Sequence to fold (446 residues):
Amino acid sequence: MNSEIIISNAWICLVEGSRITPRFGNLTIKDGRITAFRPLSFVDFISNPDNGEMDSFNAAGRAVTLPLVNFHDHIYSRLAKGLPISGPTDNFEHILSNLWWKLDMALDEEMIRASTQMTILEALRNGVTTIFDHHASPAFTSGSLKIIADELETYHLRGVLCFETSDRNGKDKTREALEENRRFIANHTNDNIKGMMGLHASFTCSDATLQAAADVIHQLDAGIHIHLCEDPADTRISLQKFALAPAARLEKFNLLNEKSILSHSIHLKREDYELIARTGSAIACNLDSNLNNAVGIPDFSNIPQSVPLLAGTDGMHDNLARSMKQLFLLHRFQGNGFEVTFPWFQKICFDQLAFVRRYFPDYPSLQVNDRADLVIWDYVPAAPLSEENFWGHYIYGILERPVHSVMQAGCFLMENYRLTLMDEDRINRYIYLQGERLRNAFVKMG
Fold:
């Protein structure tokens, strides 16, 4: 187990109910848990900055928060950068068919492993230690989630994994995807790795597939992870093929529950959002991806306050700080005053805490006896932090600064910008080799 570690001279941003209470002092960590907090004077520290305890990790006045969580990632997309796309990308359906549905068919075991390692590198450098991933590799389905899980556990990250189920590749591939989800949830989850039932989007899933997915989640007490109305095509095709809008189809098959993530959820009507609110399901917003794909952005005025809102990246990156800041700015852009947007943003932060604890009940609050999961940001406040001014510092200060160090269960995964468990040069070479293989396979597909 870990020896005792003291993080000295730190602004510890404690979670206390629905409040953040920053306190300056020293944090003691032993055997993966926070064992003590000793308050200090920030004014005294400014006068005497070298007063860290002997053999301590001197945070030198920096802010310490909980790690970030990516609630909608596509680890399999990481090697896609720079791929030569043939065919138009003028609408969302063309982007899917000419890029993503070609790429996922090209993936094999080594490409999946390299994609996961690249994600871990990006995640740690951005203060992310828990990833809700939505995976797709139809030509390499069986065992694919275990590959991702093993890499996450090797480098001490937590994950909630699923395989994207779809009918677009034929009945055999649909059955393989359903079974990969079922087998993983039943046999490969533990305290740090959990599973969900993955679904691509309702317009690519038949009624029979949705029923089969429902059977799995009810048998295993699981949630679904699905793209919902990312583009108007989801509704248009669903109505044409099934005479029912996407959210209503999910409700029809009892697929919505408090463990479910509905990613994007942009092109919904008020009654759809109210339906979601009744089920307890959460919406994961992915603004960078929405802008990149030109599919639109959410109108937050249509979403009831009772719907949990989460932040994701849709596989574009793992910079959750940027995603969180984007949410704040978009809400302001939609005509809301600071007096409205600050409480709304705070709600999102606490929504995220509540949701991640549905999967990891021990997700901490930086309190004594909690797991020692934390991020040290390279941000020393210009004035003492307080409960009253924390959110201004968080949005305009902390989220704008790089991550200095990351700790998970009392182990430094990144310390003073250095990744402690990863041979970054070796991994980057491996990522390059697998990226080159993927590019060659992608080009051959035409």
Q: What stands out?
A: The chain has two domains: 5-66+365-415, 69-359. The domain at 69-359 is CATH 3.20.20.140 (TIM Barrel).
